[in-house]
Design brief:
single chain, about 375 residues, alpha/beta, Rossmann fold, Dihydrodipicolinate Reductase, domain 2, 2 domains, globular
Length: about 375
């Protein structure tokens, strides 16, 4: 059995540790002792460790005995944490979704001779894996990913619950969105180009620009049209735009009496309670990936993948934790079984290009009842 350390005992990190402990020795590390104790109480086989990842020497010492690191820290901690892991010559699967470009660490990872799989969640993650696979099967002209995590029960005004930190969600709402159109990178404000879409089993959702392409812009630059949009219930975008335009997401600190606080810190604190997803609150992950191009027979073909996943009542595991976390644990097992060992910083599209790896991860998710339903049609 391999020894794995999971950094981050949040909703996704905990789900990954619980999944991995079935076949490996697992230690779960976090600065939040209460979160660690909760996991330990429910899953005694997991070893827990109090750890502050910002203390780099402590982090290096803590990960030294392990065969693999799985990183699920908050986005604002992600890049430096990943850099420290790579400097420590530890192979790593990362889902921290930090705003920096992970490929900037590629030369360091190659120099250290390690594999660092990044953005290994649902989107980015499975969306990349699927595109990487089909990029080997056809000449792609269009890629679109529509994705969102939604509560089953709507609560006015936002009709939204966050499976992770609100500050990471706000980052998604403020970071400029990049997409590719006619071979050119286009930069738009997040939350723009809002349009309604219909989804079976849910109804109407609104989609808007978000910066979800990430590594695809650099690894698959020959695809002339690529876009990722986030999904929410109708009306959500308008309320977020009101907050954004009113300055509630500004980072510059304000003096309030003797206190000093930024509007972003204040807003995040308020929204933490408003958006907090309850331990057993049911939610849904929805994704639709559309790929168009010319197949090996010279026909114009459209391939669509549909994902509709819900909270698992048997295991009390959120859908976002399942769809994000189990993609990462699939990649962890893929690596530990020796099926993928390329060195450097590896986004999922570079794994998906290998047919055996692609089908391994799809099967791993199927075994956990996470189903990507595929439809294909030729276009005259």
């Amino acid at each position: 059995m391999n020894k794995i350390i999971v950094l981050g005992a949040g909703m996704v990190g905990s789900a990954m540790a619980i999944d991995l402990v079935k076949n490996h020795w697992v230690t779960l590390a976090d600065i939040d002792q209460q979160a660690l104790d909760k996991v330990k109480h429910n899953t005694p086989k997991i070893t827990i460790q109090h750890l502050d990842v910002t203390q780099h020497e402590s982090l290096k010492k803590s990960i030294e005995p392990f065969d693999l690191v799985v990183c699920a820290v908050s986005g604002f901690l992600g890049f430096e944490t990943l850099k420290t892991i790579i400097e420590s010559k530890k192979n790593v699967i990362d889902i921290s979704f930090f705003p920096e470009n992970a490929l900037d660490l590629d030369s360091l990872a190659k120099e250290k001779g390690i594999t660092a799989v990044v953005d290994c969640g649902v989107a980015p993650g499975m969306s990349n894996l699927i595109l990487g696979y089909h990029n080997e099967q056809m000449k792609i002209t269009h890629f679109e990913c529509l994705v969102g995590g939604l509560p089953k029960v709507k609560k006015w005004p936002f009709n939204y619950k966050a499976p992770f930190s609100p500050i990471d969600v706000i980052e998604e709402y403020t970071r400029p969105a990049r997409y590719v159109e006619n071979g050119e990178i286009v930069i738009r404000e997040a939350l723009t180009d809002c349009e309604n879409m219909e989804f079976t089993g849910i109804g109407t959702l609104e989609s808007f620009n978000s910066d979800g392409l990430r590594s695809l812009i650099y690894t698959l630059p020959h695809i002339p049209n690529m876009k990722e949009k986030t999904l929410r219930y109708p009306g959500h975008v308008e309320y977020i735009q009101v907050l954004k335009e009113s300055g509630f997401f500004n980072e510059e600190k304000l003096e309030l009496g003797r206190a000093s606080i930024s509007p972003l810190e204040f807003t995040s604190k308020v929204l933490f309670n408003e958006w907090k997803l309850g331990d057993t609150e049911e939610e849904i992950t929805v994704m639709r990936i559309t790929i168009k191009g010319t197949n090996s027979n010279g026909q114009v073909e459209e391939v669509v993948y549909h994902l509709h996943d819900e909270y698992n009542q048997k295991t009390n595991t959120s859908s976002m934790a399942r769809t994000t976390g189990y993609t990462a644990t699939a990649a962890a097992n893929l690596f530990l079984e020796g099926m993928f060992n390329e060195k450097g910083v590896i986004p999922p599209e570079l794994i998906g290009k290998h047919e055996k790896c692609f089908h391994y991860i799809i099967k791993y998710l199927e075994n956990r009842n996470i189903l990507y339903r595929k439809t294909t049609r030729t276009i005259d």
